């Protein structure tokens, strides 16, 4: 079915297509029996798919990466598509419109996207309120991806992360600290050892409420050098955070086949060109740390084989975004079925 409608969606701009797809999911969910039909088509339930990672039980290891549902508007609908977990955000303390449009581009010859969205979102309080009233809350693990507002200087960034952390604490199962997006000026400077340790240690000091703590993960860029990855391993040990998400989008433009004008658009590149590098980062972190912490693998997963390679490299879980757009919602079930087989 998706193969039939995909050409129509790809005639639209990426943001318009996204709006139509998510709006369509909402509409189907409101029809009597619609949610049940979608779930029957795309969900594979089996106890053998369960994964216990950083103290949480995931019904399967395939999640939806941050960026697709920035404002927690579609969690109920996306849960019907078979994901084991859904990561909302990136959210910031205050609403912000993001960068000027157009800000997302399809590189179809490369099965890739370039985006420079710029953390467009309605603010953390809106997302927190939506999550509070989810219908399927008990059936899906939810992550909260948090960032800083564009106008917040880096020296004050920790305060933005604190605001988001406190606002989402009661309504998410784990947190992701995003300091690796290339689309907020200066954000990646926070990946340096000292500012990063300061942010993570500060959040860890607040990470207890009514006897409950939340796993905190760090999302890193694929463009880090081996010495920087060594620093990341040291930071995980020093701060006691739960794990790493590897990786975010890349600023590299190596070996692309799409039109030069598209290739030269600024922003983060995702999709198939990232498959190899993200797997390399996963393998390096897993081997160098002796698997001291869990890794969620993301970047260029367009098939069950891609997912299995990341799991074999050392990932405990995987996430989809661009592959979900190019291959369609059946990809989740295909991966789960391959894992069972």
From TrEMBL:
Cofactor note: Binds 1 FMN per subunit.
The enzyme's E.C. designation: 1.3.5.2
UniProt pathway annotation: Pyrimidine metabolism; UMP biosynthesis via de novo pathway; orotate from (S)-dihydroorotate (quinone route): step 1/1
KW Transmembrane (keyword) present: no
Domain of life of the organism encoding this protein: Bacteria
Quaternary state and interactors: Monomer.
Role description: Catalyzes the conversion of dihydroorotate to orotate with quinone as electron acceptor.
Family: Belongs to the dihydroorotate dehydrogenase family. Type 2 subfamily.
Protein name (Swiss-Prot/TrEMBL): Dihydroorotate dehydrogenase (quinone)
Organism of origin: Olivibacter domesticus (Pseudosphingobacterium domesticum)
Gene that this sequence comes from: pyrD
């Amino acid at each position: 079915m998706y193969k039939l409608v995909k050409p129509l969606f790809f005639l639209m701009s990426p943001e318009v297509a996204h709006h139509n797809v998510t709006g369509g999911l909402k509409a189907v969910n409101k029809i009597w029996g619609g949610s049940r039909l979608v779930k029957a088509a795309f969900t594979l339930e089996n106890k053998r798919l369960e994964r216990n990672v950083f103290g949480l039980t995931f019904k399967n290891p395939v999640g939806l990466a941050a960026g697709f549902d920035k404002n927690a508007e579609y969690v109920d609908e996306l849960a019907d598509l078979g994901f084991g977990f859904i990561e909302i955000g990136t959210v910031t303390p205050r609403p912000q419109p993001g960068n000027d449009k157009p800000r997302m581009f399809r590189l179809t010859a490369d099965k890739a996207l370039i985006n420079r969205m710029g953390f467009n979102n309605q603010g953390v309080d809106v997302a927190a309120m939506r999550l509070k009233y989810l219908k399927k809350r008990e059936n899906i693990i939810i992550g909260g991806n948090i960032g800083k507002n564009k106008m917040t200087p880096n020296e004050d960034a920790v305060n933005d992360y604190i605001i988001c952390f406190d606002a989402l604490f009661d309504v998410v199962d784990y947190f992701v600290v995003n300091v690796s997006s290339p689309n907020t000026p200066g954000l990646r400077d926070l990946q340096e050892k000292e500012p990063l340790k300061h942010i993570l240690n500060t959040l860890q000091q607040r990470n207890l409420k009514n006897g409950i703590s939340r796993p905190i993960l760090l999302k890193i860029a694929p463009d880090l050098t081996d010495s920087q990855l060594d620093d990341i391993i040291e930071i995980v040990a020093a701060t006691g955070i739960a794990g790493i998400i590897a990786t975010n989008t890349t600023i590299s433009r190596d070996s692309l086949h799409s039109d030069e004008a598209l290739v030269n658009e600024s922003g983060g590149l995702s999709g198939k060109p990232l498959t190899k590098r993200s797997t390399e980062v996963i393998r390096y972190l897993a081997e160098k740390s002796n698997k001291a912490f869990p890794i969620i693998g993301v970047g260029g997963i367009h098939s069950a084989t891609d997912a299995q390679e990341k799991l074999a490299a050392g990932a405990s879980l995987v996430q989809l975004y661009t592959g979900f757009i190019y291959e369609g919602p059946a990809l989740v079930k295909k991966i789960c079925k391959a894992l069972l087989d």
